[in-house]
Design brief:
- This protein is mostly helical.
- Helix 1 crosses helix 4 (about 60-105) and helix 3 (about 45-55) packs across helix 4.
- It has helices at about 5-20, 30-40, 45-55, 60-105, 110-135, 140-145, 155-170, 175-190.
- Helices cover about 80% and strands about 0% of the residues.
Length: about 190
């Protein structure tokens, strides 16, 4: 496949994601899962890695994931193309809305549209959260091989998630503290 054709495919795949993934970075996860199956550009494990890295690095999560996929697929140019594809719909929509919203900001129709977008955004974010939990806390591959219900759960990671949650509720440190501690625990667990 030529580099130009790959760049166009990356741009339009992420343009579509940026156009319909209302609600931020986690709302892009269902689109990324579908893109993974359709294109083979990355795996389910890559999605889990994207979420982990995107959540712990500066910048919007969706943009970080688009950049990762583009770079992994087509190098530096692919990273730029994918990122631009993801943010282009937002830029276009913002420019259009800025022009017309001042005329219609008090309109009941506009307010109803925004009211209707709330449950859609909530559902996309919930679906993404469930997908992340499934990838992070369950080992479906091992369960399918063994049939043993206990092998379905990644107990160390579930314990880590519970400890982080309890510590967060008790001490309410900044989330970066828990991200760093979880990264260190992940390194120790993998030794």
């Amino acid at each position: 496949m030529s580099a130009v054709l790959l760049d166009l495919r990356l741009f339009f795949a992420f343009f579509r994601t940026g156009l319909f993934a209302v609600g931020g970075g986690l709302a892009t996860l269902p689109f990324l899962q579908e893109m993974s199956v359709r294109t083979g550009w990355f795996t389910t494990k890559d999605i889990a890695d994207m979420v982990a890295v995107s959540e712990s690095t500066p910048g919007p999560m969706g943009v970080n994931m688009a950049t990762f996929v583009g770079y992994k697929t087509a190098g530096l140019e692919g990273g730029f193309v994918s990122t631009f594809g993801l943010v282009a719909p937002s830029i276009i929509v913002i420019l259009i809305i800025a022009r017309i919203l001042t005329k219609f900001k008090e309109s009941q129709g506009v307010q109803k549209v925004f009211y209707g977008l709330r449950p859609a955004s909530t559902a996309l974010i919930l679906a993404a959260g469930i997908g992340v939990a499934k990838i992070a806390l369950l080992n479906t591959g091992l369960f399918e091989k063994t049939g043993n219900l206990l092998s379905l759960f990644q107990w160390k990671l579930i314990l880590l998630a519970a400890v982080v949650w309890i510590c967060y509720k008790k001490w309410n440190f900044h989330p970066i503290v828990f991200i760093a501690a979880s990264a260190a625990a992940g390194i120790l667990f993998s030794l």
